Amino acid sequence: MSTPVIAIHGGAGTITRVSLTAEEEARYHLALAEIVAAGQAVLNAGGSALEAVTEAVRLLEDCPLFNAGHGAVYTSEGKHELDACVMNGADLASGAVACVTQLRNPILAARAVMEKSEHVLLVGPAAEAFAARHGVVTVSPDYFHTEVRHQQWLRVRGQARAMLDHDASSFSFAQQAAEPIDPDHKFGTVGAVALDQFGNLAAATSTGGITNKQAGRVGDSPIIGAGCYANNATVAVSATGTGEAFMRTAACYDIGARMAYAGQSLQEASDAVVFETLPKVGGRGGVIAIDAHGNLALPFNTEGMYRAYGRGELAPVTAIYAESA
Ligand code: GLY
Fold this sequence. Notes:
Number of helices: 9
Mean pLDDT: 91
Bound molecules: glycine
Distance between the termini: 38 Å
CATH superfamily: (Glycosyl)asparaginase
C-alpha cells in the first residue's frame, strides 16, 4: 500500500512578495489548503487518484481566484472558452474538452469523455451536448464572469495580440484595476496530480486560457502530453504556463520520456523540461509532477506558482513564491 499524495497548482507567473497584499496572500493560501485537503480526504477514504484529481480540479474551477471555470479569462470576443483534460495512469485512459462555453465544470466533461465515449477529445457545442447528456451541469456564460478578469480584458481588447494571463498577481487586485496588464507575465491554469494507496497515478488540468485569445484558440491544457499526462510507469504531470510552448515541446510527456528512456529521476526530468527545454522556445510557467513512489517535483521558471500538496493525514503544505522572490 502506498501513502497517498496529492499536489495542486493554481497558475504561475510574475508573483512576487510585493505583488500581493497580506490579505490576498492569505486568501490564496486558504483556498489552496482547503482544496488540497479535499483531495486528501478522497484519497484517505480509499478513493482513487483519478477521483482525487477530478475533485481537486472541480473545486479549483469553482474558486474565482483561479483562471478556470468561474474566474476564467475573456477571449477577444469578450467570452469564455474553457479547456480541460484528465488522464488515468493505470491504463492511459484520458478525456478532454476544448472551447466549451457553458459547462460549469469542464473537468467533469473531460471525465465523461474518458469514461462514456470511445474518444479522447471533444470540442465546442458538440462536446457540451455530449457532456450535458451525461449529466454535466450547464450554466449561462455569465456564470464565468468575475470583475477582475473583465477589467483585465477591457484594458487589452482591441490590441492585436493575446495577453498571457492570470498569475493572479504581478499586481494586487487594487492595482490590477488601474495598471496595464504585462503581456509577458500573466498566465494561469489549474491542475492536480495524485498517487493513491493502490499505487495508481492520475493528472488533471483545466483553464480559461489566455486573456484576449483569438476565438477558437486551444492551448496545452486539454492536449495529452502537452499540459497533462499520467502513466503509472513514470509520472503524473499537470502544467501551467505559455501553452503554445508546452505544446511545441510536448512538455509533460517529455518528463515521463526522460524518466523512461534516460533513467532520469522525477526531479531531474522535471527540472530539465522547465529550466532548459521550455525556455529555449520562450516557455514560461511550471509543472507539478509525482512519481509512483510518491516523490514530488514542483519546479517553475517564473517568480511564483500557486501550489500545494498533502501526504496521507499530514496537514497541507501551501506555497506561492520562489525562494528568491
Ligand atoms: N496554459 C494554458 C494555456 O495556455 O491555455
